[in-house]
Structure formats: structure tokens, C-alpha cells
Amino acid sequence: MENCVLQSQNKHLPTKNSPERRDWKRMKLEDDDGIQEKDDTEGGEFSHPIPWQKIEAEGLDCDYALIFSKKEADELFEHLEEEVVYSTGEEAKVQVYGKVYNIPRKQATYGDTDLTYKYSGVTRSACPWTPTLENIRDAVTKATGHTFNFVLINRYKDGLDHMGEHRDDEKELDPACPIASVSLGAARDFIFRHRDARGRNCSRQIEPVKLELAHGSLLLMNPPTNTFWYHSLPVRKKILQPRINLTFRRILKSKK
């Protein structure tokens, strides 16, 4: 069985101007998917403190929160639909074990000038930031205290579009920086699977960790998550609405 591990911790992630820890009044809300904690504190660095949920397992360290209201998320989705230009032709393909496949979703890459990112046998250059992407990036930085110079965008037209198991562990990525995943549109299941528990001949029995990524949410995948855990977005035939996912990263600039 898939196991959803949510340890709710109502906290701010450390930022440049905030202390590592703060004591907050908390109000627990229970639903079918587990326990959420809602902040009932005034003040602090943010006008509306973010109720982070801690997600942990062996070698897995993530933080999850809703950082945009439904109205904000709706507007961001609409703006991205107008602004983002997705890859076509050879850039819309990936190489897996020597074979070339069409990507089962749309993709685009944006970021700082002259940045490139190579994965699945394809090297992608960053298009200049759009106004909406800059706004989302800055909101993520404010929420987490981390800066990002690149974003990979995946657009899923419906539940048939999907993403196979993989790790974001390319050498271009700053190993000290988390990957920040913003979800807009249809809620989708997101599954983590430990590297030692994959396949029929796996060496260990470790339960997968399953999440549902909501409209307007942020999932922060902290180190060493991508060292030990693969993640995927499986097919969900009943979902008819589109989803846009933005994974913000920090690319190490090559030394010339």
C-alpha cells in the first residue's frame, strides 16, 4: 500500500532575516488525508504566516504548504497560459536508455541569461523570465528564503499526461539548494519511491509516499531527498482539467 506521511509542523522556513525557530499557536484541522495545522498567530515576517506541513521518511525531507489563494492561483494560471512558450520538435523529446520518446506533456525552461540544463539526453537553454514567472519566483523566495535562477515548466493537458519515475540529481544543480515545486490547476497525485524499493528485485521493502498536490501549493524538496527518492506523477484517467507545474532550481554556473 502507498503510505502518506505527513507530520504537520506550523513553521516558517529559515530566511535571511528570521530566526530558525518560532513558537506559534496552532489550531489542528483534521480531514480525510491527515492532519493539517493552521496558524493562529499574528505578526511575524509574513502578514499571513504559512502553515507548513513537514513530510518525512528515511532520507526524505519535504515541506508543503498552500502559498497562493484560489483567486491568486487562478490568475497566475491564466497569465501563464498566455505567456509561456512550450518546446516543440526535438526539444519535445527525451532519451531513456538510449531510446528517444516524445514527452507525455508540454515543457518549457526559463531563467537567468546563459543558463542551460541537461537532463534525459537533452540540453535546454533558459528563455528570459516572463513577468508572471518572476512574480511566482519572488513569492517562492519570500516563503522559503532560497533564491532560484531557473524554472522547468510542465503542462499536463489532463490526467493522461504524466511523468515517469526520476530523480532531479543532475550535476548542474546546486546540491545545497532545495527544489521548489509550485502546482497550479488540477490537483494530481505525486508519488515518492525509495531507490532501494524499486522493481521486482528490490533490496528493501520501503513504503512509497503519496501526496496530492493542490492548486496554489508549494512542495519544497530538501536535500538529500533527490539522492534517495524517485518521484513521479502517474496517469489519472478521471482528471479532465489541465495542470501547470513549475519546479524552481538553482543552476550552478559553469566556470569558463
Automatic annotation (TrEMBL):
Cofactor section: Fe(2+)
Entry binding sites for substrate: 117-119, 169
Pfam family, one: 2OG-FeII_Oxy_2
Compositional bias of kind Polar residues: 1-17
Domain Fe2OG dioxygenase: 147-252
Biased composition (Basic and acidic residues): 18-29
CC annotations in GO: nucleolus; nucleoplasm
Binding site for 2-oxoglutarate: 154, 156, 166, 231, 243, 247, 249
Protein name per Swiss-Prot or TrEMBL: DNA oxidative demethylase ALKBH2
